[in-house]
Design brief:
Length: 126
């Protein structure tokens, strides 16, 4: 038990050191009690994704998030020096949550995802 705790503490310390070095190289200061990588949609990216969804998909088949979420920290690297936005392909409110035993990806959303990514990639002017 002692050995395990020592190993966990050592691993945790190594992770903190790696994250600290990455943040230093990025020229950012880590906030106390905050995540080392912060993700935020750019205004221009959010507006483009939002307008695309509103233009091409019927009302009631899409929704803007009601609150911020702490996800996509790896995607934050892509948006460091460019405009962009992340979005989710939702499965509906009556669908089991991700990372649960009951979760099963609903293949029916693939078509909507292909359409959305295609509209965004082709740069339709809205």
């Amino acid at each position: 038990e002692k050995r395990r705790k020592k190993k966990e503490k050592s691993s945790s310390g190594l992770l903190q050191k790696v994250l600290s070095n990455i943040n230093k190289k990025r020229g950012e200061k880590k906030k106390k009690n905050g995540p080392p990588f912060q993700f935020m949609n750019s205004t221009k990216g959010f507006e483009y994704v939002s307008k695309t969804a509103k233009h091409f998909f019927p009302s009631g088949t899409w929704a803007e998030a009601s609150r911020p979420t702490m996800v996509c920290e790896d995607f934050a690297f892509y948006l460091e020096n460019r405009e962009g936005a992340a979005f989710f392909l939702g499965l509906g409110e009556d669908w089991p949550g991700l990372h649960t035993q009951e979760y099963d990806f609903n293949d029916a959303v693939i078509e909507s995802g292909i359409h959305m990514f295609s509209f965004l990639a082709l740069g339709y002017e809205i």
